[in-house]
Amino acid sequence: MKPISLAWHVCIVLLATALFAATSAAQDAQSAPASTPSPAAAQGAPEAGGQNQRPPHAFPAPTNLKVLPKDLTGAQVREIMQGWAGDLGVHCDTCHAVDTKNVGPNGRPRMDFASDEKDEKLMARIMYQMLEADKKDYVARVAEMDKMDEPAAPLTCGTCHRGHLDPEKYTPPAEHPPQGAPGAMPGMQH
Ligand code: HEC
Ligand code: HEC
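# heme C complex -> structure
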């Protein structure tokens, strides 16, 4: 009986091992298709998720504001910057330099927003000062007199730039001759 018993034991162990191997192979085979896209998705996920819902520390407090109010938060600066970029039809790197020594996980250098390396940034500072002076010293005075009209659209970078880095030259359309010629507006003559 002993040899048979041993044989049976061996058999059972072998069978169990075979079954186990077969089952796990089947499981592997089953889970393989499901798990195959996961690594790819996992690779993409932090990128996509990171862009849509950045943690607050992704907008550090500004360190080099010279014309904007110095107490702006990182998020407030970001919002203003997105407005400027949209008004001029450009991306952030039109005005901001990259930090070649600071390479991000995607292998591309990160922006150095505090750097004053690019002329476009320096010109934008002048433009912002012009805009603020215009609003305070001129637009506000006209708006004060212009009581009959609805408040006009606020003066922004987009008022002049209209989606272009260099404002386009305005040429009146040919079908509208210059106004104000004698006789054209008799009511204006006193
Ligand atoms: C038209 C030029 C221009 C564009 C486009 C632009 N910026 Fe700026 N950015 C500036 C200027 C000018 C300043 C500095 C303002 C100041 O001195 O008060 C600045 C400052 C900043 C700062 C603060 C840096 C610091 O530490 O002082 C951040 C952050 C920033 N920009 C982010 C962005 C982002 C993000 C974009 C794209 C969405 C962008 N900028 C697009 C001109 C620009
Ligand atoms: C009153 C109209 C007006 C407004 C408002 C205005 N700009 Fe400009 N901007 C101009 C004109 C005109 C030029 C072209 C100057 C030149 O190069 O001859 C210019 C040029 C620039 C340039 C340089 C473009 C280049 O060729 O590199 C930048 C950058 C700029 N503006 C940013 C801004 C920003 C940012 C704002 C808002 C804070 C703004 N501008 C508001 C009229 C305006």
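# post-check
The beta strands are 97-103, 109-112.
The longest strand covers residues 97-103.
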